[in-house]
Amino acid sequence: MKHEAKYGVAIEGGRIECRLCPKLCKLRDGQLGFCKTRLNEGGRLVTTIYAEVTGCSMDPIEKKPLYHFFPGQPILSLGTKGCNFGCIFCQNWQTAHRVDAPSERLLPEAAVELALRQGSFGIAYTYTEPLIWFEYVLDTAVLAHERGLKNVLVTNGFICEEPLAELMPHIDAANIDVKSFDPAFYRRYCKAELEPVLRTVERVRPHWHVELTHLIVPYKEEAAILDDVRRMRDWIADELGPDTPLHFSRYFPHYKLELPPTDEGLLARAREIALERLEYVYLGNVYADDGAHTRCPRCGALLVERSGYRAVVRGLEGGACASCCRRVNVVGA
Ligand code: SF4
């Protein structure tokens, strides 16, 4: 469904510059942007995916993954198509890179009603990149807040400052993908830039509940990968705070990248390094109890027990460890 898009600015030669994300596409009449969802139509910028939903289901919040935000609760999850990244290892390429993927119309009012009917505590904008769904996410999030629901983004964090400021008050939590701490990786494997992602994370961290996901792709020597992990760990500890949850995820071959899956030993070593300065470090796409549960950073008591996407809150009382009373960064438990 076409809908007027925000952040289109007329520039020379009858073109429009889209200032939603740092790609800053300059579009001639009839031209689509890199994300294939924003179009210069006769001199005005339109989005072609407003209310176009390709995925809609009640998912455990752990699947996003968010482990410290309403643990154990399902959330209505919505996704669309298109992406402003070009990751050659994309796990959702059938919708992210196929704008002709089948979709159904779900207007913001209907999405909010559906969430309420399903007994969801909120709406997660997920599966593909929600920031290019900007107008729909904004309209739906405003309505959702009015009805007492939470709004959650699962995102690559690639957005310009002005639209981010507009979205800021309407989002409660986000899982943001920091795909690598190596700028060359972003350019070579994602057709994107690292710096704007880090700026987004730093800006939203004081306002939203934020967790980070880092997919470890074995694209270079293990020692060099672990050096990147150390630099990312230090940036998180210094700029965001050691209580920021970090999820390492195991890579499997997808789409156009055919490297072997990440060695589980490498994931475990990355977690050990991260735990030197961070309080909550998890492993995803791998079976590991140690990397699944939430424990008190002070006394080690089990706070949230997980098995797959199932989570049971065990040792939390009023946002603190029930054993030693240390405050922990868990919301809604
Ligand atoms: S949102 Fe899409 S059209 Fe706009 S700048 Fe980013 S990639 Fe280009």
* Tally of separate helices: 8
Instruction: Give start-end ranges of low-pLDDT stretches.
Output: none
Tell me the CATH superfamily of the largest domain. Answer: Aldolase class I
CATH topology of the largest domain: TIM Barrel
What global shape is seen?
Answer: globular
Structural domains: how many: 2
- Average pLDDT reading: 96
Structural class: alpha/beta
CATH architecture of the largest domain: Alpha-Beta Barrel
Fraction of helical residues: 10-25%
Helix and strand sequence:
EEEEEEEEEHEHEHEHEHHEHEHEEEEEE
Strand order of the largest sheet: 8-9-11-12-13-14-15-16
Instruction: Report Rg.
Output: 20 Å
Task: Give the DSSP E fraction (strand runs of 2 or more residues).
Answer: 15-25%
Q: Give the strand tally.
A: 21
What is the end-to-end distance?
38 Å
* Name of the level-1 CATH class of the largest domain: Alpha Beta
Description:
With 333 residues, the protein is α/β, with parallel strands linked by helices. It folds into 2 domains: 3-47, no CATH class; 52-292, Alpha-Beta Barrel (TIM Barrel). The protein is 25% helix and 25% strand. The protein is built from 8 helices and 21 strands. The protein has helices at residues 93-96, 108-117, 134-146, 161-167, 183-190, 195-204, 222-240, 264-275; strands spanning 3-4, 8-10, 16-18, 26-27, 38-41, 44-47, 52-53, 55-60, 74-79, 104-105, 122-125, 150-155, 173-177, 209-216, 246-250, 281-284, 294-295, 302-307, 310-313, 316-317, 320-321. It has an 8-stranded mixed β-sheet. It has a 3-stranded antiparallel β-sheet with strand order 1-6-5, with no helix packed on it. A hairpin with a 2-residue loop joins strand 5 and strand 6. Helix 2 (108-117) crosses helix 3 and helix 7 runs parallel beside helix 8. The radius of gyration is 20 Å and the shape is globular. Iron/sulfur cluster is lined by residues 18, 20-21, 23-25, 33-35, 38, 84, 132.
